[in-house]
Amino acid sequence: MNFDTRALARMTTAIENRDPHALASLDSLAPGHARVVGITGPPGAGKSTLVDALARELRSRGKTVAILAVDPTSRRTGGALLGDRIRMQDHHADPGIFIRSMATRGEPGGIARATADVARLMDAAGKDYVLVETVGVGQDEIAIAGLAQVTVVVLVPGMGDDIQAIKAGIMEIADIFVINKADHQGADRVELELHAEGFSCPIIRTIATEGQGIPELVGQVSDLPSRKKTWQVGNLPHLDHLGIAVNSLADSLPFYQSLGLTAHRESVPQEKVEVAMLPAGDARLELLEPTAPDSPIAKFLEKRGPGLHHIALRVPDLAAAVAVLKASGARLLNEPRTGAGGHTYVFVHPASTGGVLLELIQEHSQ
Q1: Any residues with CB less than 8 A from the CB of 207 and at least 6 apart, and which?
Q2: What are the φ/ψ torsions at residue 343 (nearest 5 degrees)?
């Protein structure tokens, strides 16, 4: 595919419009090496000015940049209000920077529905950095944590009790805190409050309008190990297995064996279940027979009968996934623990997943 600016713009528009041909083309592209950086924080924190300064510093270092600025949706046209593209006009003649304002189109969470797909496109196009600026977010608008490899939460002096108010939301997803407008009174207090709340991630003071602190921020953004590798571009979760509750392995296994599947059996005492694992391509089926009346599988069978019990996804960084889920308010049924096959896993309640029990499993290092 031709990755010149015009082609990228056309492809981005098609992806935003959920064009099937564009989405199919996107899936065929090889991933690149981009570092996806989320810039989020409350309204008025100076996120756009900070993104502008970051892009300028990265370009001075010879890096190519894509800026995806998520704006509120216009009630009149349904499109983005385009405020960020207006504010970043100084970059319009630079072929090393691609800027796109994206309308939320009613999506909650601070980013647009197509943001992740457009970030994948920019990655495949060879951009070194993809800077995703969210709308001015509130406590629960933390979808950026599922996309960015590094999340920068921007705060400003004078927030007062706002740090307490948003602590349970966007504060928890920060990999880096930026205290912007650090020349204003109250910067010391913001930093003290962050330390008092126990946040251990880097805290950088900036005056984005003057470029102060921006080189230090770029250094942290570039060097900080990605905490949220689980959703990293080109490194998504994979299907591990489907869990099927059965009354009897002895009665159920012959059918699957007749298909040529070979079973490996294992007992999991803490779950009070006997498991038959049946590899099927890159994933497997797991037949689950209860070994005690109070087993979760026994209770499932009593209530619903035999059938699909759960879906399991394999993730590269279970601890990071758990942190993001907790910050988003997802209902976890257990802390990470070891189960069948020596895998570390967590179950997520169906109320948080759209109606199906979801298991997340730590992917073993190769």
Answers
A1: 180, 181, 182, 183, 213
A2: -80, 145
Cα 29-12-51 angle, rounded to 5 deg: 105
In the numeric block, the tokens 């970051």 are attached to 54
Would you list the domain boundaries of the chain? 5-231, 238-362
In this prediction, residue 197 has a pLDDT band, given cuts at 50, 70 and 90, of confident
Q: Can you tell me the distance from the alpha carbon of 235 to that of 34, in angstroms, rounded to the nearest whole number?
A: 12
Characterize 106-117 residue by residue with b for buried, 16 or more Cβ atoms within 10 angstroms of its Cβ, and e for exposed.
ebebbbbbbbbb
More confident residue, 251 or 351: 251
311: tokens are 């879906």
Residue 176 has pLDDT above 60, yes or no: yes
Looking at the predicted structure, is the pLDDT value of residue 224 above 50?
yes
| pLDDT mean over 113-139 | 85
Measured between alpha carbons, how far is 165 from 162 in angstroms, rounded to an integer?
5
Q: How far apart are CA 127 and CA 90, in angstroms?
A: 19
Give CA 13 to chain center in angstroms. 22
Phi, psi dihedral angles at 46 (to 5 degrees): 85, 35
Contact in structure between 180 and 51 (CB atoms under 8 Å): no
Vertex 48: Cα angle to 46 and 54 (nearest 5): 100
Query: One fold for both 5-231 and 238-362?
Result: no
- Name the CATH topology of 5-231: Rossmann fold (3.40.50)
Residue 9: per-residue pLDDT: 93
Token look-up 């000015």 returns 49
Which CATH number is associated with domain 238-362? Answer: 3.10.180.10
Sequence-distant (6+) residues with CB within 8 A of 170 are 40, 41, 42, 137, 139, 141, 142, 153
Residue 131's contacts (CB-CB under 8 Å, 6 or more residues apart) are 37, 39, 51, 54, 55, 65, 66, 67, 68
Whole-angstrom Cα distance, residue 147 to residue 234? 11
This prediction's pTM: 0.62
Residue that is written with structure tokens 């970059």 in the block: 91
Give the three-state DSSP class for 307. strand
Q: Look at the chain and count its residues.
A: 366
Of 224, 196, 36, 153, residue with least CA distance to 216: 224
